[in-house]
Amino acid sequence: MQQTGSPPPERLAARALTVAYDGVPAVEQVSLILPAGCLCGLVGMNGAGKTTLLRALGGFIAPGSGSVRIDGLPPALAQRRQRLAYVPQSEQVDWDFPIRVRDVVMLGRYGRMNLLRWPAAVDRRAVEQALERVDLSNLAERPIGALSGGQRKRAFLARALAQEATVLLLDEPFTGVDLPTVQLIITVLRELCAAGATALLATHDLEAIPTFCDRVLLLNRRLLAFGPTGEVFTQANLLRTFGAAPALP
Fold first, then answer.
1. Over the chain (249 residues), what is each successive 10-residue block's mean pLDDT?
2. Are 100 and 140 a contacting pair, CB within 8 Å?
3. What angle do CA 105, 69, 192 make, to 5 degrees?
4. Looking at the domain 10-238, which fold is it?
5. First to last CA, the chain
6. 3-class DSSP assignment, residue 35
7. Boundaries of every domain in the chain
8. pTM summary value
């Protein structure tokens, strides 16, 4: 049991993480530690390595060197134990695949089912609660490809909720969605982190970052700055990240 006043446990830790494609580094020597309850924004230009970093942290691509631990476990084991949830960019999903919204969310429960992958009452209940939480209960029987961009993002967030993971990695969850969906995603992530989960999300929505992220990671292949939002999210650091400093709110 965690003692009063003791620091929160490490949820996600990377040390000297490097990933290369055809010998060309996409991410170099990135080290970070995110504790329980942390909501961290990942910021950088297109091509800065954000998606590569997220996929390497999640164990979906193998790093050339360095290490990753999720709740103290290697990513592959963390995946098997349902500690990790990944919400991909829309471009990484085959929207023509014939699957209902409810079934997409149920995929988050597979690691908790028996060997036959037959959903029990607890799995169905988790799916219904997740759908309700992202306001998709009335669309549960629709094909995933029939949803709008914002509804699709909410469906994949619901899958992560049903999984009951402790670490969430989200790749551009606000791209192509309306303001109510942005606000819903932020609210859900805040609630999850308040309950002890940790979230790392890549985003280009710089205006929103100070309103909900308690930490920020600035990336341009290498880690440029990382720490509390008030200290890191500055005009000077944005200038280093983008080559020009966007106006901060």
1. 63 95 90 96 94 95 94 92 86 70 89 72 92 94 88 91 94 89 93 95 91 95 95 92 66
2. yes
3. 40
4. Rossmann fold (3.40.50)
5. 41
6. strand
7. 10-238
8. 0.89
